[in-house]
Structure to design on (526 residues):
């Protein structure tokens, strides 16, 4: 198994606040890897840094062996990774279809219809609502749209930030089923979640983040049975 | 009555073209570019000089004014506003006001304080009689230009990839960046379009009211800003409706109430509209679902 993403000794600051203190992790091809941790542990900061939205002060980020630190933020998506951000951040005043087109912004127009069909296969609901404004969708549909939009760039690595946030349990199950299906279809997944139970149950491997440091790592199954993880994140 | 209405729509069309610059820049960069009115003045002077001193025909003069203003708009954004992208909005606002005074005083040095009589580029064309009202060619051109610009911009933002990307950037710069959209380029493009339109508005304004001074752009600039707020800032059709309503109100107030009070009435209407509709006539109030 080859390494898709390799993050080493990452340090990120917000002004003088040292948010990420030397985080290192790897994602292998075809894996589902999850970063779990409490609110404020630095999960989203880590993901946003990998996605190019934040600049680290120290450390390295390599995607398929190439450093992406010097790459302009809007060009990171060209490297083959897509970030589906926390809070979905769909373009509320663009239609569902326009949102998806934005996801394929860097790709040639001739390839878009085919990818659009693939995304509609994963999310039939989006096809039904393609001409509706994204702001009128329900929370679950917006999450599907955010994921579909990220898929439109045909990423090798898809990063998902809190996809279950604010969704009803039945929708959370559905979203996680889709994540597994995407993974089976060949997309490598890096997942950040507060819902540790769900995340660990689908993850090949996991890292536990606490106040900007990785404090524990193992397979999803191991961490589900780990006493300290159980106590801190799985409600005993 | 009809003549006043047409004059009002014509003046309003010029306001609408200027208002587009305010509203688009506000929509994308979330800032009020108070130097926008002075770009109109620069457009006026450039077309004046190229017609009077260089002997350019009118269409070429307009084109040159557009090129100069577009370049000026991009340069202003790069030098003055871009370094303040993450600063407080108050700092950007004060910078924009400073830039406005800078342009006025630069014009004062270059062209002097004496008003220049802008040549009438339609002097060979007869005024048109329509149902007993005389319509000047410039009034007609302003209305037609406004309609063409509105249609073109609407098609651009709704149909083209770059236009859709512009709407995406106006909603969420971070998410747009994740899509691979170059936010800095999009902002530059917005300033370019706004300033190019300001040049057209400058020529129309100076042709309709042929006195050109370094302060020529400031009052129409403020009125166009009012029109943009009136129609709902950030909205392209809002700028059109706001501009035309404002022009019609102004001309009618001038004709039937008092020419001294016309401006007071215009701004009074704005205050009343904002009391009842704080987001303007077509302002967007989207309640996002969490």
């Amino acid at each position: 198994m080859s390494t898709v993403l390799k993050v080493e000794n990452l340090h990120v600051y917000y002004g003088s606040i040292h948010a990420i203190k030397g985080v290192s992790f790897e994602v292998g091809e075809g894996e589902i890897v999850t970063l779990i941790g409490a609110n404020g542990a630095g999960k989203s900061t880590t993901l946003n840094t990998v996605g190019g939205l934040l600049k680290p002060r120290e450390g390295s980020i390599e995607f398929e062996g190439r450093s992406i630190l010097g790459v302009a933020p809007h060009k990171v998506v060209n490297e083959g990774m897509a970030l589906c951000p926390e809070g979905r951040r769909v373009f509320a005043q663009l239609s569902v279809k326009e949102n998806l087109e934005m996801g394929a912004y860097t790709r040639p127009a001739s390839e878009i219809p085919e990818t659009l069909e693939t995304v509609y296969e994963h999310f039939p609901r989006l096809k039904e609502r393609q001409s509706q404004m994204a702001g009128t969708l329900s929370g679950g549909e917006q999450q599907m749209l955010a994921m579909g939009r990220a898929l439109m760039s045909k990423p090798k690595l898809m990063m998902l930030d809190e996809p279950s946030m604010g969704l009803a349990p039945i929708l959370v199950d559905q979203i996680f089923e889709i994540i597994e299906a995407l993974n089976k279809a060949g997309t490598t997944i890096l997942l950040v979640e507060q819902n540790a139970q769900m995340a660990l149950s689908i993850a090949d491997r996991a890292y536990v983040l606490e106040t900007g440091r990785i404090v524990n790592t193992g397979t999803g199954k191991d961490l589900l049975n780990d006493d300290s993880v159980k106590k801190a994140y799985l409600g005993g | 009555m009809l003549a006043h209405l047409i004059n009002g729509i014509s003046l309003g069309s010029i306001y609408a073209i200027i208002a587009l610059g305010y509203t688009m820049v506000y929509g994308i960069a979330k800032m009020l570019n108070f130097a926008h009115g002075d770009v109109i003045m620069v457009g006026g002077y450039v077309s004046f000089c190229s017609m009077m001193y260089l002997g350019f025909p009118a269409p070429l003069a307009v084109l040159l004014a557009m090129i100069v203003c577009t370049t000026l708009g991009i340069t202003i954004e790069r030098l003055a506003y871009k370094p303040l992208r993450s600063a407080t909005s108050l700092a950007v606002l004060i910078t924009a006001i400073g830039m406005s005074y800078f342009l006025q005083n630069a014009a004062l040095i270059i062209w002097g304080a004496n008003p220049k009589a802008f040549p009438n580029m339609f002097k060979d064309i007869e005024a048109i009689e329509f149902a007993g009202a005389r319509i000047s060619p410039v009034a007609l051109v302003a209305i037609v230009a406004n309609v063409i610009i509105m249609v073109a911009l609407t098609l651009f933002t709704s149909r083209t990839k770059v236009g859709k990307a512009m709407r995406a950037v106006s909603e969420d710069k971070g998410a747009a960046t994740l899509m691979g959209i170059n936010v800095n380029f999009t902002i530059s493009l917005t300033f370019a379009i706004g300033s190019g339109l300001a040049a057209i508005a400058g020529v129309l304004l100076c042709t309709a009211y042929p006195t050109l001074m370094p302060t020529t752009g400031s009052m129409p600039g403020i009125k166009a800003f009012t029109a943009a707020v009136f129609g709902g800032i950030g909205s392209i059709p809002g700028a059109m409706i706001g501009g035309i309503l404002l022009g019609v109100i102004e001309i009618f107030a001038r004709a039937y109430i008092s020419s001294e009070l016309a401006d007071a009435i215009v701004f009074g209407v704005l205050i009343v509209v904002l009391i009842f509709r704080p987001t303007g006539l077509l302002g967007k109030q989207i309640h996002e679902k969490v």
Observations:
- Chain A has a mean pLDDT of 94.
- Chain A touches chain B at residues 51-53, 72-78, 82-83, 85, 87, 89-94, 98, 101-103, 105-106, 109, 135, 137-139, 142, 149-150, 153, 166 (CB under 8 Å).
